[in-house]
Amino acid sequence: MQKLIECVPNFSEGNDMGIIKQITAEIEATEGVKLLDVDPGKATNRTVVTMVGTPDEVIEAAFKAVKKASQLIDMSRHKGEHPRMGATDVCPLVPVANITMEETVDYARKLAQRIGGELNIPVYCYENAALEPKRRNLANCRSGEYEGLPDKLKKSEWKPDFGPAQFNAKAGATAVGARDFLVAYNINLNTTSTRRANAIAFDVREKGRLKREGNPITGKIVTDEKGDKVWIPGTLKAVKAIGWYIEEYGIAQISMNLTNISVTPVHVAFDEVAQKAADRGIRVTGSELVGLVPLKAMLDAGKYFLKKQQRSVGVSDAELIKIAVKSMGLDELKPFNPKEKIIEYMLESQSDKKLANMTLQDFADETASESPAPGGGSISAYVGALGASLATMVANLSSHKRGWDDKWDYFSKWAEKGQAIKNELLFLVDEDTRSFNLIMEAFDMSKSTSEEKEKRTQAIQDATRYAIEVPFRVMKKSFESLEIIREMVEKGNPNSVTDAAVGALCVRTAVMGAFMNVKINAAGLDDKDFVKETIGKGQEIVDEMMVQEKEILKLTEDKIASA
Questions:
Q1: Which residue, among 65, 86, 195, has the nearest Cα to 147 in the 3D structure?
Q2: Which residue intervals of the chain bear CATH 3.30.70.670?
Q3: 227 torsion bin: left (phi>0), alpha (psi -120 to 50), beta (else)
């Protein structure tokens, strides 16, 4: 599935919109990247930009923006309230989807190396991308700010991680980092009291509250042997929080920054605040997400609340999001539109004509048209998705079957596996057509010079290889669903045994159809070792699929006979 990272560069210009627009134009011109937000500040003379996209493309967009900023912003003339040391002051990367922090760190360092090497700007790596412990803290990297750079760069302990140890008077220095995703999240209370909201905020935030003697509000502050104030930690890690009153809504809120949602997810923060509020006689009425949130955060929340109800979590993403929204009251103050609040959905181009998003009628019409794609490969993936869907349906029906309440979790886990397989096969419906288009594009490439001929040949081979890999993935994923199908035939709701069996028939079509695509595309690939290995593995999948399908159909017939 597609990897996504967020990049939030801060540029030292917040007044001249002409300069800001020239910088952001570099981002908007980069394919595979979407500019999500531009937030200029006049007093700080600083603009925070947010972009999201696939890693290599984000790195390219960030580099071009940093380059443009170094050309347009003169730090020797810069004044502003916010600490700063460069035209591009900081440039953090944030993992969003299907990518680890370790991978994000690699991309951050790659970007830092390019900025230092190609633009001659001193670069310090901070937070998770830091190359030494003291540089993890951005404040340390930025100590002395722009004005202190000439002396700082002469010190061996502050030699830049990348770029020259020389003062760049115009561009200054840049800090490139990798950090966790931050979610701004407000929880609504049925009170107008800021003091009570603050009390709840202090209960939950990681920093907690000051320890006092006697009265927790007016008592003398307790200090340690060094004279430092003693704090009582709150219950939630990686959470900052305060209470405030929102005149627009006439309510108090807990305003939170969740600085690491893998440590404290949104749904955990919501439930903990609800409990602490209840302990103080206050009720949580809803909440709001400020800005964007990764899809996974919403799906995890939906699963969390379904599990609390002892219901199957093996449902569609749309259903999980709906459960999350209603459970946390995310639509209490204003409508919650997933297309506008979830990062992955924001990135979907309105012009993209995805086969998987078509109606059944439109999909059939498109397949029947004179266009060569979608063809057998996409149909194989879709039939495989239907097979996995049938298995998932039986698992969900079994999870909610009257009298089987003690089995809900068992069937829920099978349904969740089925949903994952279905989702990947739906992705492969479009990916198979894309692989065909890549081959066509490669054949259309110019070939007048020897270099262009060589590039064209390589592009054709790369596209052909991918056109083999996609249907092979269809084979493997479709085959995986047989495990779920067999389990549902043997132990699932007996009223739906034939539905599961039809799923097995779908898997047969998907595997056989995809294998034919593998073999016909393999004829055009020069790498015969890869072809031999892939076809060999494909044949093994086909052989095992035939055995399992026969057994599943026999089990089904036996179930029907004994009904």
A1: 86
A2: 183-346
A3: left
Tally of CB atoms within 10 A around 448: 7
Is the pTM for the entire model greater than 0.70?
yes
Sign of CA dihedral 295, 298, 302, 307: positive
Decide if pLDDT at 203 tops 80.
yes
Q: Give the 3-state secondary structure percentages of the chain, helix then strand then coil, rounded to 5.
A: 55, 15, 30
Nearest-10 crossing angle of helices 408-443, 376-399: 170
CA 453 to chain centre: 38
Instruction: State in words which class domain 183-346 has.
Output: alpha beta
CA distance 397 to 493: 7
Which amino acid, 457? T
| pLDDT tens, position by position, 51-96 | 999 999 999 999 999 999 999 999 999 998 888 999 999 999 999 9
Q: Which two tokens stand for residue 544?
A: 């095992």
Q: Select the CATH number that applies to the domain covering 4-178 from these four: 3.40.50.720, 3.30.990.10, 3.90.1300.10, 1.10.287.180.
A: 3.30.990.10
- Does domain 356-562 fall under CATH 1.20.120.680? My reply is yes
Q: Distance between CA 553 and CA 16 in Å, rounded?
A: 71
Q: Which residue numbers are catalytic?
A: 82, 432
Taking the CA atoms of residue 51, residue 54, residue 57 and residue 63 in that order, the dihedral angle to the nearest 10 degrees is 50
Q: What are 188's strand-pairing partners?
A: 253, 286
Q: What is the DSSP letter of 12?
A: S
